[in-house]
Amino acid sequence: MKRIITALLLSSMLLSLFASCASTEDTAAGGMETANAAVTTAAPEAAETKPDYLASLERVDFGGADYTLLCREEKEYEMFAESEIGEPVNDAVYKRNQRVSEYYNINFSTYAIPGVSKHRESFLTHVRNSVLGADMAYDAIAAHLTFFATAAMEGHLMNLYNLDGMDLENPWWASGFVDSNTVNGKLYLTTGDLAFSMYESLYAVFFSKQLAEDHSLPDLYALVDEGGWTMEKLSEFSKLVSRDVNGDSRFDNADSYGLITNHHCARVFLTTLDLPIMARNDEGTYDFVFETDRTFNAYETVYNLLYNSGDSVFLSKPAEDTDYTEMLAMFGDNRALFYTGTFEYTSQMRVMDMEFGIIPFPKYDEAQEDYITHAYGGTSVISVPAVVKDEVMSAMILEAMAAESGATTIPAFYDNVLQTKFVRDENSARMLEMIAGNVFFDFGYIHSQYMDSIFQFFGDSLWNETESLASAYAKKVKAFTKGFEKIMEKYEELE
């Protein structure tokens, strides 16, 4: 599996940041300003040798043209910053935009509207009206991953392969998206370094170093490196921890567990256990491949982990746990050996008075070739409207911003993650590289909403304690198949 960004670039990035963290390891948790200052001064040789990808791109003077990117107001921070304010990620976004604007002589701005899932229709309607009205208001779009394929299937987006000035084989575009979402030789959406929401959305397994030591677990980093971190090991180790902390003879969120997880994380196993929904065929289109013995057997494995592990697994089921509040509180109290979540909430982990580490989601078994990473649907996908004032400018600025992100925003994001205690070691830096490098976006995941939410079906069946996935699938296969056929028809109709 190809990596999102080159191993050399990410390794040098992590090593320089790790060096800065090591130099501030004795700094108090509240000393953020000191830690960030160290980042700008430590390891100058690494900074000097970092590739300047922007300088390698063709330079064109666009004569002070306005360049407007439509984005979600909830994620505008990844695309635009008004000024430098002393916050590393914000300042990196500002510097990236300034450098690209000066390099190409443009006036870059964003236009942000509500764009989370509940605003799906209003966001899509806004795009439709702009394209059909040919107002050329936007030069590019950054939208919500889970619903924006609609704009592609309706013909409102350009084929990115046709744009001069955009090279989707460059390391700043996510190959795990490009390779698996090209259909009939065309690609209408992509993601990568420009959208650091992708990095925020990466799922991982966090573990308590103290509990791992207390229960004599082997070196988990070495286990990952050897390819032995599997569902069998996750189940085996999770069963070692189960304690009624408050002595009330019932297990709830006041007790200790081997694994704590929630609704969203249950869905992730479909990706991480290498259970494809669709697979590209020799004709360049896709086959619907969900129904396999491997998928049903893997489901049974996850079901047994969640429901047949005694009192060693806790399923967080509050009415709303989108911010992982309950699980983070439990993990922070050292009451869970393993916790599943995304990097988005690592900032909340800085206050935790514990040592913890990070590893990828486990493989199904040792025969699975790679550890595979899933990214939450909040990831931004990048596109170009079907009608723009200058196709070359649209493409070249996206390319430049993505390239420059590798030198600015992504290092700042990793620096933000690396300031937490859990990654102040070389092994965790390597794990971050592995997790980021192996992210994968199934064509079926991107189009799940048009197939009766087939991606959610796997995790929701687990959450509803459905013992047999095969039986549940038999009741929905017609709807899934009908949705798949409509998707393929839509793409066939596009020129």
Walk me through what this model shows.
The protein has 495 residues and is of the alpha/beta class. It folds into 2 domains: 7-199 and 376-419, 3-Layer(aba) Sandwich (D-Maltodextrin-Binding Protein, domain 2); 203-374 and 454-476, D-Maltodextrin-Binding Protein, domain 2. The chain is 44% helix and 12% strand. The protein has helices at residues 7-23, 32-41, 44-49, 53-56, 88-104, 120-132, 149-153, 175-181, 197-200, 209-214, 220-225, 231-238, 263-272, 293-307, 325-332, 346-349, 391-405, 409-418, 426-437, 443-446, 454-463, 469-493, and strands spanning 65-72, 106-113, 140-144, 203-208, 242-243, 256-262, 278-280, 286-288, 313-316, 336-342, 356-359, 380-383. The strands form 3 sheets. Strands 4, 5, 6, 9, 10 and 11 form a 6-stranded mixed β-sheet that branches. The protein has a 4-stranded mixed β-sheet with strand order 2-1-3-12. β7 and β8 form a beta hairpin. The longest helix is centred in the last third of the chain and has 25 residues, at 469-493. The two termini are 30 Å apart. Residues 1-9 and 11-48 have low confidence and may be disordered.
Can you give keywords for this protein?
12 strands; single chain; D-Maltodextrin-Binding Protein, domain 2; 495 residues; 6-stranded mixed sheet; 4-stranded mixed sheet; alpha/beta; 12% strand; 2 domains
Helical coverage, percent range: 40-55%
Rg calc: 23 Å
Find the structural class using helix and strand composition. alpha/beta
Distance between the termini: 30 Å
* CATH level 1 class label of the largest domain: Alpha Beta
Q: Might you state the CATH topology name of the largest domain? A: D-Maltodextrin-Binding Protein, domain 2
Per CATH, the superfamily of the largest domain is Periplasmic binding protein-like II
Query: How many domains would you count in the coordinates?
Result: 2
| Poorly predicted segments | 1-9, 11-48
Largest sheet: 6 strands, mixed
Q: In total, how many beta strands?
A: 12
User: What integer is the average pLDDT?
Assistant: 87
Shape: globular
CATH architectural name of the largest domain: 3-Layer(aba) Sandwich
